[in-house]
């Protein structure tokens, strides 16, 4: 259990790509209620179940449990809400922090978001040149909402 | 992961009570969608997260993971849908099988249900004299539904 502090930005150039390693993520939701999202994520050959509470500012309750990948496959294929979210996640180092860059696939192709996890909400960070607008509080970019309103249907 | 085969009956007399040990269960739901229920259960000082798929006959997909009891308390107190379900669970032996008798509290007080888990749907069982009508397929008795429609409001 922990409190997650995370800031999210749109990615505006390609400068982050060189040398970044990527992992394919398949994820789906058992609940997209914003007060109690339940996510199943399969990343390579590891899998987790993650429960998040409502976002308050840039913080929210987060509980994460490793689960057998074979369970996650059944949960994704048979139980999770449709559509699933598929994306490549890249890890990019910048100014002492690890940024996670998500390049969405499928119905959300074209959307690229960078996230950084912080120790506390007021932590000062140096923004990389390749990020643009901050979208931490913009609910449209929550993964749970990209199921009901995928990026391909935005105007 | 497994397939759960379970039969449920109303309890009609008190003969099962003598000597049966009981444990207080507190449980709540992160999802009550019948295709993907997510339950948090605290039983004494142990806790689990349980995910169930849709019931097909008397079988349904079930995934269960132990979680830290301290996590379960926060999930129950802060994230789960209201009201929570509280009940005493008794374990009762009968004819070589273990029956679980649930005596509900709070808004569901007065309701007592006996469940038995089987190896396969067609398994022959000897019914104890203290059970009445079978309610395996009656959705009103699903724990997830006793939240929205507690027993005290049935007429």
TrEMBL record, chains A, B:
One of its GO terms (molecular function) is adenylate cyclase activity. It comes from the Bacteria. The active site is at 29 (proton acceptor). InterPro entries: CYTH-like_dom_sf, CYTH_domain, NeuTTM/CthTTM-like. SMART domains: CYTH. Its EC number is 4.6.1.1. It holds the Pfam family CYTH. The keyword Lyase applies. The keyword Metal-binding does not apply. It is an enzyme of class 4 (lyase). Residues 2-148 form the CYTH domain. Keywords: Lyase. CDD domains: CYTH-like_CthTTM-like_1. PANTHER family: SLR0698 PROTEIN. This is Adenylate cyclase.
